[in-house]
Design goal:
Blueprint lengths: L1 E5 L2 H18 L4 E4 L6 H12 L9 E4 L1 E3 L10 H8 L11 E2 L8 H14 L5 E4 L21 E4 L2 H7 L12 E4 L2 H6 L2 E6 L5 H9 L17 E6 L11
Parallel strand pairs: 1-10, 2-3, 2-6, 3-5, 6-9, 9-10
Antiparallel strand pairs: 4-8, 7-8
Helix pairs in contact: 1-2
């Protein structure tokens, strides 16, 4: 495990974006596992800026996203497909047929999950997986459980996750109650895992996930045993652990 301390959110975003850009520069046909949510926005903004300056080229890159709401068409303004188009893909030179996100419109759970696992295998696995961390320790939509779910699966979102996501919808009732998510196996098989975290609200779960027992009750805790795991976090998120950088 490597921990990189950042001064603030902008510094965290730049440092994480630099790791992703370096991955693409060193391996132009990299497979990037991407995440949605508020935390990665600064990273994507920085990558777009560097692309426009000619510093990084995404023409050979393939991406696989962590998750998608079940039952939400990709055209919906809160779908993760829409999020990725608006915040990254529309602004860089990635090929449309190199972009993969679980098909939230398809209600056939077995079919969606098998297809997505097959896609991840067909592209050769993930070179770098970007992650955030939920306040309960979830990664992707791998929620606290009694077991680590290995493959792509459908999850019933916890009340805390629904509560956290309701700000993106007009009402709590509109928040999807289920999602398709990449499993722990694909995440752990990535060559490198990059987690980003910011803010004091993440300090407690960072301490529990990375310095407590490895348990499916805190899904992110399994990253302790990944062979190349990097956490980039600001001082507030690291405030409950004693880190010697």
């Amino acid at each position: 495990m490597k921990i990189i301390r950042a001064e603030n959110y902008n510094d965290m975003s730049r440092k994480a974006a630099n790791i992703i850009a370096a991955q693409v520069i060193l391996k132009p046909d990299s497979v990037l596992g991407l995440a949605t949510g508020g935390t990665p926005l600064g990273i994507y903004k920085q990558l777009v800026e560097w692309y426009k300056k000619g510093d990084v080229d995404f023409s050979e890159v393939t991406t696989v996203n962590l998750d998608e709401y079940r039952g939400l068409p990709k055209e919906h303004n809160q779908s993760y497909w829409h999020f990725m188009q608006v915040n990254l893909f529309n602004h860089i030179n990635i090929k449309a047929n190199h972009v993969y996100i679980p098909n939230g419109s398809d209600m056939n759970i077995e079919r969606v999950c098998k297809e997505y696992d097959d896609i991840i295998q067909s592209v050769g696995g993930i070179d770098l997986q970007l992650l955030g961390i939920g306040n309960d320790g979830h990664i992707g939509f791998n929620e606290p459980s009694t077991v680590f779910e290995t493959g792509t699966h459908c999850v019933n979102l916890t009340e805390s996750t629904i509560e956290a996501n309701k700000r993106f919808f007009q009402s709590r009732e509109e928040v999807p109650k289920q999602a398709y998510t990449m499993g722990i196996k694909a995440i752990m098989q990535a060559e490198k895992v990059l987690m980003v975290a910011n803010g004091e609200s993440k300090a407690d779960i960072i301490k529990k996930a990375l310095f407590g027992p490895v348990t499916p009750e805190i899904p992110a805790s399994i990253l302790q045993i990944h062979h190349d795991f990097v956490l980039v976090a600001d001082k507030a998120a690291l405030s409950e652990i004693d880190v010697a950088i």
